[in-house]
Amino acid sequence: MRLLKGINMNSEDYPASVFKNKIKSSLPYTLAVAIIGFVSLWIRTRPSEYVFLSNGFVRFGGNDPWYHMRTLNVLLENYPQRMFFNPMTNYPYGSYIHFGPLFDQMMAIISLILGLGSPSQDLINTVGAYFPAVLGALTVIPVYYIGKYLGGRKTGILAAVLIAFAPGQFLSRSIIGFTDHHVAESLFSTFFMMFFMLAIITAKKNNLRFEDLFNKNFNVVKEPLIYSVIAGVMYSAYQLSWPGASLFLFIALVYAVVQYILDNFNGESSDYLGFTGIITFLVSAILILPFVHPDMGFSLYYYSWFHVATATGIVVCFGILSFIEREFKNRNLKAYYYPLAIFGLGIFGLLAIRIASPPIYSLIINAPHTVFGVQTGGPSTIAEVSSIFYDGGVFTLSRVFGNFTASGFFASLLGMLVLIANAVRKPKPEKVLVLVWSVLILFTIYGQNRFAYYYSINVSILSAYIGGLLLEKVKWNELDEKFKSTVKSPADIPGFLKFLRVEQVLTVLAIVVVLIYPVYGSAMELTKGTGGPDGPWIETCLWLKSYTPDPGMDYNGIYEAPEDGKLFDYPDSAYGIMSWWDYGHWIETIGQRMPNSNPFQAGIGGRRGSMEEENQPGSSTFFTAQSEEEATEVLEAIHPDPEKEGARYIISDIEMATGKFYAMTAWTLDTEGYYQPYWTGSDYQYLPSTRYFDSMVSRLHLLDGNGLKHYRLVHETWAYQTQEAGYKQVYNLLYGSSVPEVDSGYVKIFEYVMGAKITGTASPNETVNINTTILTGQGRTFEYSQSTSSDSEGRYEFTVPYPTEGPIPGETQFDTAPAGAYVVSYGDITKEVRVNEEAVLNGQEIKI
């Protein structure tokens, strides 16, 4: 592969000495890029101690990285067969895998090579942890070359430095332990743009015409052809890392339309562009074809005919644009008719697609809102898909500055303005390409801030472009030539320094202070730790794995997807784990249990369009349910089989009960009344209301399930200082209660059981109480109690979820239970009752 512009190694007119001199002149820059790459890798591996814990546990960051490690382990267990349908999540439906295969395959191949065919789990975890950091460091290579061909080598070096230190989401998603495909998206999309740019530059330089291909004029065609093929390969790698890669098809199409129009107005041929586009996307359509799942139809989210159709469609678009341009020239038509012709054909094409394939038409029409539109309702609470410019509906630049720094962001805007001016004055294809690419990615972060890790690439390149222009203004190139001619050894450097001018020194200092130092400082702050499950969640999931019944599934097995309209055939021993969707991958991968909802936003339930919709069963409807009976109805409705419940265990944490509670209500579109203004003596404050305390998440986590008939606490982790005590204080004020105002377990596991029925007789219409003291595995105690009234014949009944005896083999090995017997009291009579686990699990009656 040759990236040296204008070098033809096979040319007889190109002396070997000149080629050697070119190589020699490139060596310092090659060495500089290599050093920058290693610095970038060092930055990304700094917080390794937060990933490789002292107890041997490897803590991957975020949520989706855990799922990638899950799919990686399944792949290695069944190599080369890959999991496509996963019944171990979104119980009782399972989920298709929408992740691309390439990211996992690269890690799998590396693991197999290093492990000599049988990699250990420690090796797999190590490869997985370091892999995103390596890909992030490699990104300096395409960024350097794009910068180089945009504004020279000095621009390329500066761009490489800026992306090496780029903070925000680009760094956080390429840091050690964040084993997600996002960094592969950035790397391969940037390589695609680099080779696409090189293909366009060389085709334009060679004055390529379609006739050159037909006439087998390979001296003209060879170089653009090679770059176009590699660009197609890189786009395919990008597509096979993320199904949504069609975003860059759209960028390429918009660029093509703009470039064709500019060329037509300037009276230039665009054959070079048509050739490049056709070859690039024809290659990508062919390479993507083997990965299509025909049963996915025309889905955007899974590898389907949509991806082949769109790549093929882009090939057709390039061909049509070239054909129209030639016809315009042959017929001597006015240049300003060309955009009108393109617009008319675009409308006609959409109408044709609507008739021929309504699914594709629907995807095309809805795609702009999906990518560029601001989300509302429940989706607006997903951190990565909310707008980067809005926080809680209020316009802000804080997220922008956090991702790119203030100087970097405004430098990128300035860079786009300069490129626009260049496009108006003397448009160069590579500059128009970078301009269109940057503008469209800027629009994507308006819709979804997750695309900040894309725009970091553009910020680095555009900021470096501005820096390069400043260096040109102070005649840095002359100084560079002077350095090459006068410095032959380190001893010559002092003599060279006399050629430095004050404005050159000040310009370099300005670039360092304004562009480089801010991103460096932000990067150092971000490498002081990593994300991922905290200690309580790790402990909770490991407890699930060890102390709950085996669901009867082959955890690393490959399962066939059920036929359309049918449920996956789970064994009778299978069950779900109800928690908020954020934690689904941790439950599945660390705990090896089946969550009802997951970070793919499956199993959340609720509403999407309006309050008139039925509130679908799921985690949002369960945790916001206003009574135990309502919550149980949700739990049972999750499973289509009326004989089975949707979940056996419920996991809550203090975040669900406080900070994340609004997100739960947002998914139901019913957010009012959970917090109300209360006079606190000096002003009004919004505090939890009775509606909040009636919610199931409050009943479970804050009140420990006290009084509930079918839900029992079976395990809790240690406590942290949180908002819990404050919430309990408000509860006591509202209800005149005396709940201890202390922090309890950060994460709690509850079990849904039938409950033992305790029956007896008292005087008719007598108030009867039952209570016991519960002792948790953390040594904490709390009171469990119920109250009822006997009927007209004096009969009363309690359903209680706790046994007073220990656990039994094959069932939950709980560490939280009553410290003694239940005490039933009415009038001046008290009776003790003991309950065994079988009675609780089977709903047996215990008569007093």
Note poorly predicted spans. Answer: 1-14
- Which strand-content bin applies to the residues? 5-15%
What's the pLDDT, averaged over the residues? 92
Total of helices: 32
**Main sheet summary:** 5 strands, mixed
- The total beta strand count reads 19
The level of helicity is 40-55%
Distance between the termini: 86 Å
Query: What is the total number of structural domains?
Result: 4
Order of strands in the sheet with the most strands?
6-5-7-11-10
Structural class: alpha+beta
Radius of gyration: 32 Å
Describe the protein's topology.
Blueprint lengths: L15 H30 L18 H14 L7 E2 L8 E2 L4 H14 L6 H18 L1 H12 L1 H13 L2 H5 L9 H24 L4 H5 L3 H22 L6 H20 L5 H18 L16 H27 L5 H20 L1 H15 L17 E2 L2 E2 L2 H7 L1 H20 L3 H19 L4 H22 L2 H11 L6 H4 L5 H25 L8 H13 L28 E3 L5 H6 L4 E2 L23 H5 L4 H10 L11 E5 H4 L3 H8 L6 E5 L4 E5 L1 H5 L1 H7 L8 E6 L7 H12 L11 E6 L3 E6 L5 E9 L5 E9 L5 E6 L16 E2 L3 E5 L2 E5 L3 H6 L2 E3 L1
Parallel strand pairs: 5-6, 5-7, 12-19
Antiparallel strand pairs: 1-2, 3-4, 7-11, 8-9, 10-11, 12-15, 13-14, 13-16, 13-17, 17-18
What descriptors fit this protein?
848 residues; Rossmann fold; 5-stranded mixed β-sheet; 5-stranded antiparallel β-sheet; 32 helices; 52% helix
